[in-house]
Structures are given as structure tokens and as C-alpha cells.
Amino acid sequence: MSSLLKVEGLSKAFGRVVTADGLNFEIHAGQITSIIGPNGAGKSTLINILSGTLAADAGRVFLEGRDITRLPTHRRVRLGLCRSFQVVNVFPDLTVFENIQIPVLGIVRKAHHVFRSLRRERGVTERVMEVLGQLKLVGRAHDLASELSHGDQRLLEIGIALAVKPKLLFLDEPTAGMNPVERVETLETIRRLSATGRTTFVIVEHDMDIVFSLSDRVMVLHRGEIICDGTAEEVKNDKQTRECYLGEEVIE
């Protein structure tokens, strides 16, 4: 299995609070990886560092063998590394179609012509509709994003990231605020998208049902350290993980 992302000695501290303590790991192409751990473990900080929105104190990050440690976020996006956020981050006053159209135009370097006649941008339109089809949102293409349910807005946000054809996509709590039906639908969407082999997903998630049913691999963070890294079953049965995060009831 090929290494898509490699992290070496990654460290970050805010005063005396250490959120990444010399982390070393690899993310493999085609494998759904979940990152779990208690609040304050360093999960979101890790994603912020890897996506370029936060600088590490030490360490290096490689994407497909290329050192991206000092690259800004937009350069990482162009190389294929993208992320979503905990809070819904869509354009509420634009249509669903326009929300996807903007990043698509961006990757073909036409973002300054966002609202030119779509008849002149056939390839862009086809790409937008392809993404909406992957998310089953074609029927909502001309609705305002603000009119979507919370669950569909979260899917739209994933679509904005998918629009630039990422090789690696970090999803930060993608099911936050969803009802049970929406969570299941989102899980199935991620599984279906992963199966295409086009994008590798890394997920930060608190819903253990989703984590254990979706993930090929689970990494457990605690106080900036990886205390367990393995399959769902291995993590469920890891004593230190149960003590620090899961609790005994998880394996009942």
C-alpha cells in the first residue's frame, strides 16, 4: 500500500499545552483513516498543521514524497491536499451549483469570471454536475445553499472540497449536528466516494459507531501523542485507549 502522506517528528505547543509531541505516521492511499481522542487531544490542531493553516514548531510533512512543510494552504490544495471544517462553511446566499462552481473555476484559473455565461464553460458545468451527482444533490442544484438541511449543507461542504479533485481530504467532524438518518447517509457517501479510489479520506469524528463501521484504520491521540494505531478491533481492545477515551462500555 503506497504512502500518500508522511509525517516526521511533528510538534506543536501553545505555552505549556502540548498538542503534537513528535508525531510520526503515514497515511496510505485508498485507506479510510479516523483520528479519535478526547477533547484537547490535538486532533484539530493536527489537521490545521497538515492543511497549512497552522505552522508546526518542528517536524516535516511530505505529500507523495514532496516536502510541503512550509507550503501555504493554497499550494497544498493545488497539490491535492484539502480539508473541511467543524462548522458548516458554505456560501449561503449562492446556489448549490454556484458553491461548487467557484472551486471548479479556481482550479482552471478562471475564478475571477465566476458568473460568466455557463454556455462558455461547458467543461466546468459538467464537472459541477458530476460532483453534485456524487453527493445526490443534482435536484437541488438551483436552490440556495441556505435552503438545504443541515445534513445536506455538510454534504455540500464536502462537495466544495471534492470539486478540486483532492488526492487527500481531511474531514473535521463531518457528521456534527446531524440526526441519525443524516449520519448514516453521510457515512455511505464517504464510503462510496472512497471506493472510487480517487480520494483518500482522513476523518476526525466523535461518533464511535461511524468510526468503527467506516474506518480501515483508527489513530488515537491523547495529549499530543498517538497512543494506539490499528484496526477498529485493535483500538476497541486497547487498554490505554479505553482508559483515556472509550470507556469499558464500548466493548460490551
What does this structure look like?
With 252 residues, this protein is α/β, with parallel strands linked by helices. The protein has one domain: Rossmann fold. It has nine helices and ten strands. The longest helix has 16 residues. The radius of gyration is 19 Å and the shape is globular. The two termini are 33 Å apart.
In brief, what are we looking at here?
The chain has 252 residues and is of the alpha/beta class. It is built from nine helices and ten strands. The C terminus is likely disordered.
Present the secondary structure layout.
Blueprint: E1 3-14, E2 17-28, E3 33-36, H1 43-51, E4 58-63, E5 66-67, H2 73-79, E6 81-83, H3 96-107, H4 122-135, H5 150-162, E7 168-172, H6 180-195, E8 200-204, H7 208-214, E9 217-222, E10 225-230, H8 232-236, H9 239-246
Helix pairs in contact: 3-4, 3-5, 4-5
